[in-house]
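User: My instructor asked us to take a sequence, write out its structure as tokens, and then describe one feature of it. I'm not sure where to start. Here is the sequence I was given:
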Amino acid sequence: MQNSVTGFILLIVTIVAALSVLGIYFAYTSVYSPQVAKQEYLISLSKVISASISEEAFKGIPPSYECFNVSYLIWIKSITPKITLVPFVTCPQKSICLYIPNSQQNAVILSSGKNCYSQIKSFIINCNIYLPQQCKLLGKASVHAFNITSNETYELLAKVKPGQIVVIWILYYYQGKWYRLDFTYANPSGEGLGVYIITSSGSYSSYSKSTNVKAPHVTISQTGFQMGLWFKEISTSTQKSILLNDTLVPTGNTEKEFSIIFYECSSKLYVCIVSDKCIYARESIGEIKEGCCYFLDFVSGAQTGNTEQLSITLYNTKGIIASDIIIQLPSEINGYTLIVKFGCKNLVNSISQSFFEVLKSTSSSLTGFDEIEKTIYNHGFLYNDTSCICEIIKNCDNLYAVGYWYFVCSSSSTPPYINGILWYYSHGNLCKTCIPEVGQNTYILT
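Assistant: Let's start with the prediction itself. The structure tokens for your sequence are:
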């Protein structure tokens, strides 16, 4: 009898324990199963999402070209009819998958219209962002987002500096929360981001046989002539590589034609004067280094204290590295016109900009003569603002003419020809025209 009671009690205890375990199980699964289902649904969405990005198009932002506008065509494939994109610009980093963008995204999404792309209206997401896996918190973000239709083409436009990347978050709003289903990125610098700069040009001439024709005929006066250019060594060569060839052509019959040639060999810059196909004089200017930018300036003329000679100065970005280098000329430069050719075909130097200026023959002052040289040097290798040059000659009575070339192309479509600009005085009026190029340019992306 006692054994029967004991067995009955054990049976009751076992049943109660089983029922308790079963109750706990159902209580747990009633909460957990929806979480599992949500996670599986979000993960399934993330697995079928894909992004296609075209090759980039870019254009430098003037005047300094330190930043670039880059654009891509993007196409997001998803089984959901709508998807949300958050584009932003940042620097590459190992933990890019965990990086949270700030408010300075520098990127927008555009949709295509009949004739052009227009920016999609953005909205602000200011809340927590989660990942599909275990619905884990990625972090809190405050970003501008763009709703797009899946499986259609859009344009991604971003403002970047060299070395930065463009990241695109793909978000989905589900049950009151934002989830980042996937992300992708584009590396503009990896595809080739920069500006195109010439390594050689055609020929530019201010020369014409008749001295009374309209510009671009420019006669160099004996009072003063100055020329300068920004250049960068892109490779070292043991061969003679011409940087600049100035040929001075006399308008009369009493003087002879001669050339001022600057060239590089084994990372050293030289100047030589060629007359009657022979070297009249040659001087070493200084050493230059691969990858560095330099500004070369030279001046001649009686008013500058350089009668029948050339005074040369070489700068780097920090200041003067070689000065008071004097080389003799075959004659005074009075009454000569100028033919200019930049660079050579062997890709040793890139040339971003150049100028020349001529004093009036009646000038007795150097006021404003050095302003153009100082302005172009201080602005730097890529800076381009011709309005500054125009203002100088406009407000300077002793300048006769100023020529200027800018050899930088800020987009991937490079022109075969680049005309120079010429400002000159005619009958007391300031005029503007172009200096046409004969021949074609070669470029390098830098």
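For the description part of your assignment, you could build on this observation: The longest helix spans residues 2-48. Try explaining in your own words what that tells you about the chain.
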